[in-house]
Amino acid sequence: MNRPIAQVKYVGHKKAIKLSHLGIHTTRDLLYHFPRRYEDRRQLKPLNQLVPGETVTVRVMVVSWEQRELRPNLVLVRAEVSDGHHRGYALWFNQPYIKRRLPPGSLVLLTGKVSRRSIFPEIQVEEYELGDSEGSSLNTGYLVPFYPSTAGLTQQWFRKVVFQALSESLPFVEETLPLKWRERYRLVPLSKALKDIHFPADEEALRQARRRLIYEELLIWELALALHNHKRRMVAPGIAHSRDNTLVERFLRSLPFSLTKAQERVIQEIFADMEAPRPMARLLQGDVGSGKTIVAAAALLKAAAGGWQGALMVPTEVLAEQHFLTFKRLLAPLSLPIALLTGSTSRKDREKILLGLEDGYISIIIGTHALIQQDVNFKALGLAVIDEQHRFGVRQRAELSSKGFLPDLLVMTATPIPRTLALVAYGDLDVSLLDELPPGRKPVLTYVLSESQRQQAYRLIAREVLAGRQAYIVCPLIEESEVLEAAAATAKAQELQTKVFPGFRIGLLHGRMRPAEKEEIMERFRQGEIQILVSTTVIEVGVDIPNATVMMIEGAERYGLAQLHQLRGRVARSYYQAYCFLVTRNNDVEAKRRLKVLVENHDGFAIAEADLKLRGPGELFGTRQHGWPEFRLAEFPRDLKVLEQARKDAHFLISSGYLDQPEFAVLKALAESKIQQLKL
Ligand code: ADP
Ligand code: MG
């Protein structure tokens, strides 16, 4: 199974290089390179039953050939074919040599898409094969696999090589699950599953193969997480933070509001973890506006009060700056040294800060990715907090932690991934839930508008601004192009200033601005000097300006629901009634139906569940976001039940000691290499 792929028959050096681009280096890799789909080629239809648009396989005899040059460089060769009763045509483009390969009288299996321009069907041939022997071919007559591929590797070649690799290696496949275990869940042996996932005899065989392999995949994943946690807890004690909460209590009393029940409970959970000697690894989930920042501040303060350093890492500079200001304000009476470190911190300041971190003078540091750069060293990092965790990868989380010696870790997120999915994405974390908003918050009144109705939104914005409130107008998302996004936002701001709101003070914020400019704009918005902020999605996460009460989102159909909920969360931060306008193309019924979910729901979890159903987890997490583990076969939420079972089994195998018995040796080795691969 571990043989280099080049040693498999038909592969060779050149093809081996191509396979390596697909991550395939050994026979095992190839056998675990599963088909992306299957085509049912068992039914050979007569030619008179073909339906235009469908892809079919037919068995026919070539009757005659013709060739035409349609345009320069476009040659059509067309065979009249017969299935014995009915007539049809087979088309190839720019492959005149086919005529010689299939002289009249040849029996051939054709696969391709059906079209019909006359009374006879035409097949645009994608694959063909000489077909005088019934059914024994790899490319027809059964459920035919299609592989994720790359240039220069045809599907036919793939099938041949996988088949070859299977026949060479199946006798050496090491079973990962002992017989008893398989019997318990009625799972097929690994060798059978591997054969059937590539070349299933029928749907049932395919179903059983997938069932077996999905369970195995999830069991290995859960074992890796559990082993990792187990080690982390066994190997070394973490930090036991001081139980003395005098300073924290003084801080909490100084707040202009009292904590919600949920905040109190969550702080208790976190403090209990921090006081215990084992390293904390906790996820704090709380909907937008539920008040996570105060919780983080309390935890960081507790660490600092006991002489440890605390770090808070956030995904954007705008947010880092905001947290820094908040913390400075909140913690001022306690005179703790706090610093801000981002990519745009001046060199001189940066040097000072790095020194302060190294000699322990700075108690609390707030920053962006700048915090995990190589030359940042702490004297005694005791608590690492990551805000808007879904914007970071597992790796970055680990990098921040590694700045200390087993510091406690708190990650926070408002991307309300459904609780069940949290299990997948954050399987190695304990979870705390902030399931309560501060009192007096009214649901944001949300409206879906067509572009032609945007005046309604403008009228309300004018009314709110005149009443002393502020508004955000978010320009359409342009995936992968900050430049275009910035240009669109600039034009929009100009148009609004000159044509729509000439009397109001309009500000502009986009990702192409220098950090100092961004800071200045945010500050002026915070001060109320800017009344309407035209922005790209740089304000999506975390921004907290309670006086803003209107959020208008242009091109709303381009966003995921969870992201829109985040944006809307920017204006549900006070006692004032807030409004959200989702502007979308005229007559886009589909988009409007989807956006309706936001009109009717204000709970982030419900919205995320809906989004998940509509778009699947990959999309929910979005291309700009990380943190979603990759599985070969498992899919969520479809396979959640299996995941839960696998998790139970993993814990059982570890705590009972079975995992260390010889019959589980292969499984354990796979789990351990998974830990390596994940860089946990
Ligand atoms: P998020 O959970 O989205 O990060 P924030 O921590 O930014 O939320 O809090 C949102 C707003 O609510 C802030 O203006 C904050 O000061 C305020 N806030 C937090 N906790 C409370 C509370 N218990 N009572 C009233 N307001 C609160
Ligand atoms: Mg926040």
UniProtKB/TrEMBL annotation:
All residue ranges annotated as the Helicase C-terminal domain in the record: 453-613
Alphabetized UniProt keyword annotations: ATP-binding, DNA damage, DNA recombination, DNA repair, DNA-binding, Helicase, Hydrolase, Isomerase, Nucleotide-binding
Enzyme Commission identifier(s): 5.6.2.4
Keyword Cell membrane: no
Domain Helicase ATP-binding: 273-434
InterPro entries listed in its UniProt record: ATP-dep_DNA_helicase_RecG, DEAD/DEAH_box_helicase_dom, Helicase_ATP-bd, Helicase_C-like, NA-bd_OB-fold, P-loop_NTPase, RecG/Mfd, RecG_dom3_C
Pfam families reported in the protein's UniProt record: DEAD, Helicase_C, RecG_dom3_C, RecG_wedge
A GO biological-process term: DNA repair
Keyword Ion transport listed: no
Coiled-coil ranges from the UniProt annotation: none
GO MF entries: 3'-5' DNA helicase activity; ATP binding; ATP hydrolysis activity; DNA binding
Origin superkingdom: Bacteria
CDD domains reported in the protein's UniProt record: DEXHc_RecG, RecG_wedge_OBF
Enzymatic reactions: Couples ATP hydrolysis with the unwinding of duplex DNA by translocating in the 3'-5' direction; ATP + H2O = ADP + phosphate + H(+)
Function of the protein: Plays a critical role in recombination and DNA repair. Helps process Holliday junction intermediates to mature products by catalyzing branch migration. Has replication fork regression activity, unwinds stalled or blocked replication forks to make a HJ that can be resolved. Has a DNA unwinding activity characteristic of a DNA helicase with 3'-5' polarity.
Protein family: Belongs to the helicase family. RecG subfamily.
Protein name (database record): ATP-dependent DNA helicase RecG
Annotated source species: Thermanaeromonas toyohensis ToBE
